[in-house]
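Dear colleague,

Thank you for sharing your sequence with our group. We've completed the structure prediction you requested, and as agreed, I am returning the results in plain text so they can be pasted directly into your records. Please verify that the sequence below matches your submission; if there's any discrepancy, let me know and we will rerun it promptly.
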Amino acid sequence: MTHVNVRVEEGVAAVVLSRGKVNALDESTIDEVKDRFRELEADASVRAVVFSGEGMFFSFGFDIPGFLGHSKPEFSRFLAKFTDLYTYLFAYPKPVVAALNGHAVAGGLMLALACDRRLMAAGKGKLALNELAFGSSVFAGSVEMLRYAVGNRNAEEVLYTGAMVLPEEALRLGLVDEICPGEELSGKAMAVARELGGKSQPAFQSIKRLLRRPVAEEMRRREGASIAEFLDIWYSEATWRNLREIRIR
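Please find the predicted structure tokens below.
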């Protein structure tokens, strides 16, 4: 069963997460996202990508109830794939625009942070890296992407509070670049992607590498150790107790 839908329109690909009501991420979904983006990277007719979710969520993040039955090695394998995915997207050679149609939480926001631009629908959708609220840590790569987007001080505010922020606050923090009415989000994101994709591809790719490669290299250098630390905290008694209380509706 596919959980990632793709359509191409005038040189811009729309990649849409479609997994249940909240677009929670499991291993097969991560694999599918990676496969679709690789196919689009190889397609010379595609010059840019818009990444969004179906329904009221961009993505809830990890399918936590689904992972409670995983062994530590199984979950470690998923985390390696997940962090590899966002690092790949962060350095993706074509422009990627996140169209945040609704909530983007934890791992969902990490995927959005990997994109070149983030547009958010006005309204009640919220963004958060709320891991601290249930006793979890994050990953070195996610911290580097957050710093890249919002700066050190705002990164501390986002991570230390774990607050669920509305679009206006997300804009203030730098988590998103623009807010627009929900009915205009898709068209606006496609227009931004089309504008970026219309620039010289070799020049865009060169500039993106100059901007992002040092950050991506640091992400890769520190990621393994951060995953190991994340796993120790995730499987601790106190955090595990909190995780069992999380429900996906």
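Summary note from our side: The chain has a mean pLDDT of 95.

Kind regards,
the structure core
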